[in-house]
Structure formats: structure tokens, C-alpha cells
Amino acid sequence: MKDENDIKMIAKTNFGLEELLSQELQRLGAKNVEIHNRAVSFVGDKGFMYKANLCCRVALRILVPFKTFKVSDEKSLYVGMQSINWEDYMDISDTIAIDTVLSSDLFTHSQYISQKAKDAIVDQFRAKHGERPSVDLDKPTLRINLHIVGDTCTVALDSSGESLHKRGYRDKTNLAPINEVLAAGLVLLTGWDKRTNFIDPMCGSGTILIEAALIANNIPAGYFREEFGFQRWNKFLPYDEELWNTIFDSAVNKITNHEQKILGGELSPNVAKKAKENIKFAKVDDIVSIKNVDMKDFEVPPGRGVVVINPPYGERMDKDDIDELYKMMGDTFKKNFSGYDCWILSSNMEAFKQVGLRPSRKIQLYNGPLECRFMKFEMYQGTKKVHKLEGRAEKK
User: Fold this and answer.
1) Long-range contacts, 372-376 (Cβ 8 Å, 24+)
2) H helices within 56-100, ranges in order?
3) pLDDT at 98 (0 to 100)
4) Number of neighbouring beta carbons within 10 Å of residue 261
5) 355 to 161, 333, 379: CA distances (angstroms)
6) For the structural domain made of 180-219+256-388, what CATH number should be given?
7) For the chain, where are the alpha helices, taking DSSP H only?
8) What 3-state class would DSSP assign to 330?
9) What architecture does CATH give domain 7-158?
């Protein structure tokens, strides 16, 4: 049965993380959850929109679509945008920004389409009032999202504002840091039980380790954010501060305090120092520790655990150096990581061969524009043959 407070929403994500996002939304209480390409649609009320923004680890944006129309050229786009009564959503004093995503042969430049859509909105206000709202690309009152697929344009409001990967805990980064949403996705894809050891022996600025700590202790992904887009809304789904405080307090009350070992290693002293600062800033320095050490010298705690590495992919490295690095990773896994599930994310398929181990899983993901594989290498205690025989014995 449909509730009159129900709102249809779309959560955007990275390719390969859709199933994880669907599971997250269902756990939080979303209804009518459906998986799409790089997105998951669902239904919930205003409070759930707040909760999804605060708690979803692998969502990039939470959009609220409210109008769909057909387009054939830029004129029909302009007419379609003018058919919306924008005073239902904003005042002249409000500011706007428009993001356009194109999956259509009709248009080639998303920025140009954003410009035409903006013209339609401001022209409507100017015709009625002789004044027009302004554009603010950084912190607009309304961030409007256009998605054109073929000849269909969907107009949505972006309730997140800045992308949700901007958690608010990281201000010290080295070159090519990994996006927080992808980092959280990697941790979740491993199936880590949140109790055994978690290690990133090439941790860079510490993002994967921080996301693991947030997951392990149920700290909301958006806990450190200063604001979300919906907090600036005053006409459409106007911001309800009391409701937001209730949602926020409820999520914070679910934070746990476990004592698992989350460990990082980083070869560069400067980068290791930045990672430690990020970890402190994220308030997880009590459970995450980092050492300035080469991976092959990393002291691995005995027992079981999960290793996740996002090593260099080789864009800035000599081929011999990158081959040597990946060979070292494989050798170190065999020598030091007995009993661990070891995962590597990389776009370099040739370098993967140098690891010298057979992966038990391969997951296709993207790190920015780079198509990657997230590969799992199981480091059995003793030989694999013995492990299989023990497994058979247990099943009897």
C-alpha cells in the first residue's frame, strides 16, 4: 500500500557497487528497491531521505526525480523545463546549479544542456517578476540533476549537495587517493566479519582503513559532513531540523566500540604522517594504527583476517618497477599472510600476472575512469591440498 508521504528516490553509485547499495538501502528500511546501472531506485519518506544521505556508505548522491518529458533537440528541452512551475521549488532569492548526465545521441555536451536548462528556469522568473535567481556552483539552494536517456529527460533534485564520497574527515591526501565510496565498497565486498584483523599494507592516505573502522563500529558514513543539500530546501520537501536531529541521534546511538585490529603500512614517511592525521581527524585512531614500513617487512598478526591493497597501477612507473612491485606483493602474501584473504584492486591486468597466484574471485569495478579488477587470493594455512581434504572431512 502506498503511503502519501512516500517519495520515489534514486541513489547513484559506482559501477559494480549496485548490489551492495541495494542491500544497504533494504537494511535501512527502503521500500520498492530496484537495481539499475550505477543506480538503485527506492521509495521512502522525508526522514528516510535524511537517513539514506547520512548512512549509505556506497551511495554518491540521493536524487528525488519529479518530472519526466520527451526531448528531440535543445528547443524541446527548453520548453520541457519551462513547463515546470519553478516557484513550487524555489524563490527568486534562491540559487541554483545544474548537473547533466547524458546517455543520448541527441546531445553531446552536458555543460551546454545545463546552460539551456538554466536559461529556461531564469527566463521563467524574469518573465513573471522582472528578476532572476542566481547560479551558485558550490553551495546552491537547489542542485538540479538532469538525466537524458535516449529521448527522455528526467529532472531531479539532488538532496545530497556535494557528492556523498566527500565524507568530511579527509583533508590530507597524497597523489591519486581512492574515493571514499569505492574504499567502503572494497571493504564490504570482501565480506570481512568486522572481528578478525583488517590490513592495508600500502595504505596511502588511509582511506580504506578509515572506511573499515567506520563500518566495524557502525559510525554513519556522513557523520563528519557539515551539511547536506536538503538542509537548504525551503519550498519542496522543506528542511525539518527536528526530524533531522531525531534521525541523526538515532544513527549515532547505534555506534559500537569494538576492539578489532585495523592495521596499515606505508613506505613513504610523509604519506604515512598524512594518513595518521586523517585517522585522528576521523576519530578512529584508537582502533587504526599505521606504521611507516615496506610491505615486505610488515609484521602480520597471527590468525585470520582480510587484506585490501590499492597499489599503484603503473601510470607513472617503469614497467620493470611495476612488475617487480606486483611480484613482491604475491611473494609477501605467500610468505607472511598465511590464513588471510588478500585482495588487490588494479587496472593493470599485465602486472596482475606477476602476483603469481591464482585468484579465487574477480570483480569488475571502476576507480574513476579506470576499469579495474578486484581480485581475491586465499592464503591457506598449510597447503591448499591439505585444506581441501580437511574441508571434505568436515562435510562427511
Assistant:
1) 372/313, 372/345, 372/346, 372/347, 373/345, 373/346, 373/347, 373/349, 374/16, 374/186, 374/189, 374/343, 374/344, 374/345, 375/343, 375/344, 375/345, 375/346, 376/190, 376/341, 376/342, 376/343
2) 74-82
3) 97
4) 15
5) 41, 9, 13
6) 3.40.50.150
7) 18-28, 46-55, 74-82, 110-129, 180-189, 207-216, 241-252, 269-281, 319-336, 349-353, 384-395
8) helix
9) 2-Layer Sandwich (3.30)
pLDDT of residue 288: 96
pLDDT of residue 14: 97
388 — pLDDT class (breaks 50, 70, 90)? very low
Q: How do the domains of the chain map onto residue ranges?
A: 7-158, 180-219+256-388
Amino acid, single-letter form, for residue 310 = N
Please state whether the predicted TM-score (pTM) of the whole model is above 0.85: yes
Q: What is the DSSP string of 264-303?
A: EE-S-HHHHHHHHHHHHHTT-TTTEEEE---GGG--PPSS
Grid look-up 554513519 returns 220
Grid cell for residue 262: 585495523
* Residue 24 exposed, middle or buried by CB count within 10 Å (0-12, 13-18, 19+): buried
Confidence band (pLDDT; 50, 70, 90) for 262?
very high
